[in-house]
Amino acid sequence: METLEKQPCPMCKKSTLALIEDEKEIPYFGKVYIFSMTCSNCKYHKADIESTENKEPSRYTIEISGEEDMKIRVVKSSEATVKIPHVTTIESGPAANGYVTNIEGLLNRVKHAIEIAKEDAEDDVDKTKAKNLLKKLLNVKWGKEKLKIIIEDPTGNSAIISDKAVKESFKVKKQ
Q1: Which of 15, 19, 77, 153 could form a disulfide with 4 if both were Cys (CB 3.0 to 4.6 A apart)?
Q2: Structural domain of residue 14, as residue ranges?
């Protein structure tokens, strides 16, 4: 692992940014580089993951149906879009992060975003909708409800590592 400390932060401009690059072997996926930058002053954070080998654009689809599925490994690059039908879509883009987690960790990120939206909502309809989505996520975690998760990555640097996951290639739309 390589670390560069005291780098200038792109947000606050102070020399309080740590740059980290690490190489990891992820079972059933291969070798990856993990990059991150974190500012100890303003708390800016950016992370990404990149496979060491070139991969084709891919779409992974999985239906979560029980508590055991919470342990399934997820690799998501910053270029990937995560779609959870009837719940949310996590778009790729300049602010997106890459990470290695599991289904439970992914659902916790979604839960956190919904909680923030619920707190910020001024309309009772929006608050009720957020409350229902949070209830649905809890039921999914407990294995009481099913949920489909789709990860589309034009770089092929993402995966859902499970025999239950369906992998297919997909065409990248031209901008």
Answers
A1: 19
A2: 1-53
